[in-house]
């Protein structure tokens, strides 16, 4: 398995706005080959730190997703959020190979 985490930090007063966006996400990634799961995590000690946690069957499936037209379209829309505090967020991305389960 392959895990990808995108960590973003937003002002605490914007955390619920971002949670709402992810709760209502397009879910197009869910239909991609090799996609297993999606979770949005909120740091219990730093409420403005949110982590998108995705699990894939293998790295190649994740790479196919991030190079797809659908991925590019979704991320272009993110740049056009009416809320400029959220539109300018740059995530820290971490990728992991699962070595024991």
From TrEMBL:
Name this polypeptide is given: Antibiotic biosynthesis monooxygenase
Domain ABM: start-end pairs: 2-90
Organism: Paenibacillus lemnae
Record keywords: Monooxygenase, Oxidoreductase
GO molecular function, one term: monooxygenase activity
Pfam families: ABM
């Amino acid at each position: 398995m392959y895990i990808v985490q995108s960590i973003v930090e937003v002002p605490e007063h914007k955390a619920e706005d971002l949670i709402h966006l992810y709760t209502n996400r397009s879910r197009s990634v869910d239909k991609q080959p090799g996609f297993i799961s999606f979770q949005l995590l909120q740091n219990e000690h730093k409420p403005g730190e949110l982590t998108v946690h995705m699990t894939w069957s293998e790295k190649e499936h994740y790479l196919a997703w991030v190079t797809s037209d659908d991925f590019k379209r979704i991320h272009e829309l993110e740049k056009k959020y009416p809320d400029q505090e959220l539109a300018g967020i740059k995530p820290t991305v971490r990728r992991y190979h699962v070595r024991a389960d």
